[in-house]
Design brief:
This protein folds into two domains: 99 residues, no CATH class; 90 residues, no CATH class. It has six helices and five strands. The chain has a five-stranded antiparallel beta sheet. The protein is elongated, with a radius of gyration of 21 Å.
């Protein structure tokens, strides 16, 4: 694991540890979410994930609170401020990753429109579809209909599970425009059945009408 990945994992662990502690206390939950959002907003000028990791390494909690305009004396002693800081960096890291994905999707769509292709892969993660984590989203350029396939680890069996769903995206940007799925998410434990279901969905959603 790279140093960057280790730091990102540290943030995720902090976030995972923060909210279960305060969910039984609505007052603490509201205070924590407000602190996390304020600290994440303070990090908006950090342009990328590499810069975010560097910022985390070069500063500390007191510095971040000061720069975000947060008075530490006003924070309840019941709140783990170290976890709040990690959760804020986790939130900002997701925003940066999302921004990168949006830019990549727009670029892929623009490239595809310069060709005779009718579909485009707007997002992908992982090199081997049988080894999690893996995800790929294929979209029809004319309609924005898309097929999302992914491979994850089942928390129950700790084995790979294979997922396919149909989603509606903006054909110009690749961003989701409807929370309702075009085709309900289906989960498989057999890769061949998963491939067959994905191919069937591609025929239904991606082929030109």
């Amino acid at each position: 694991m790279s140093e960057r990945d280790a730091v990102v994992r540290e943030w995720a662990t902090a976030e995972e540890g923060l909210y279960p502690i305060v969910t039984t206390r609505p007052d603490l939950y509201e205070a924590c979410t407000g602190l996390v959002r304020s600290l994440a907003d303070h990090l908006r000028d950090v342009p990328d994930l590499h810069g975010l990791v560097a910022t985390f390494r070069m500063t500390d909690l007191a510095t971040d609170l000061e720069q975000a305009g947060i008075d530490p004396t006003g924070i309840s002693p019941e709140i783990r401020t170290d976890l709040v800081r990690g959760a804020a960096y986790a939130m900002r890291s997701r925003e940066l990753i999302g921004e990168d994905q949006t830019r990549a999707a727009r670029a892929a769509i623009a490239r595809a429109r310069r060709t005779t292709e009718s579909t485009v892969t707007i997002w992908g993660k992982g090199d081997n579809e049988l080894h999690p984590p893996y995800r790929r989203v294929e979209m029809a350029l004319d309609t924005g209909r898309a097929v999302a396939i992914s491979t994850e680890i089942s928390p129950d069996t700790m084995r790979a599970i294979f997922i396919v769903a149909g989603i509606q995206l903006d054909p110009e940007t690749g961003e989701a425009i409807d929370d309702d799925l075009l085709a309900a998410e289906r989960t498989f434990t057999d890769a061949k059945e998963w491939h067959a279901a994905a191919d069937e969905l591609r025929s239904l959603l991606l082929e030109p009408e």
